[in-house]
Amino acid sequence: MRLEDAFLCLVLDVAAVPADGVPDLCAAAIAGGADMLRLRGAAAAGREAVARAVTVCRRDDALLVIGGDAALAREVGADGLHLDAADAAIAEARSLLGEGGMVGLSSRTRDEARLAVAVGADYLVHEAGVRCRSDFADLGARAGIPLFAGGIAGVEEAGRMVEAGLLRLCLDAGRLDPAGDLTRQVAAYSRLLGRSF
Known about the structure:
Blueprint: E1 8-13, H1 22-31, E2 36-40, H2 42-45, H3 47-59, E3 63-67, H4 70-76, E4 80-84, H5 90-97, E5 102-107, H6 110-118, E6 123-126, H7 132-139, E7 147-149, H8 155-163, E8 169-172, H9 182-192
Helix pairs in contact: 1-3, 1-9, 4-5
């Protein structure tokens, strides 16, 4: 999977997930259509669980990025690292990741989104919900990187965002029904992007 081909990112908070459940959680998300997974709390899940998640992502053709831990990302061979815009130490992160590692940033405001593009992020997750459209329009073609709309409150809001022209979504699994089937819930967002799962 190439970053340019990723349209649905899912943020999984794996700190509270039993280590042996992390790879299955990743497989379920990918089965629903997630192209890219971002693991939050990966260090708490443990190196072995995260390494198995990387194996699942390679097998199922999805990208895996680690939230905030460049050393762990490099150690397990993750595709990259995700940082908050406030932590935008891109050069340091790239040196820790090594050749080919991507670095993505989160932003919450239009100014943070501009900063993320200016400092050389490989992709941006803009956590502005419905404001993403106007903020992305402000960035225009100069962005030159994949822009994911985040801060999505639910399927209906995501549908309105897609209808408005936002074709990359980033969902936080914490906003999904924890008792529901993860694959089915992710598939509902995949269908909004014109995919069948």
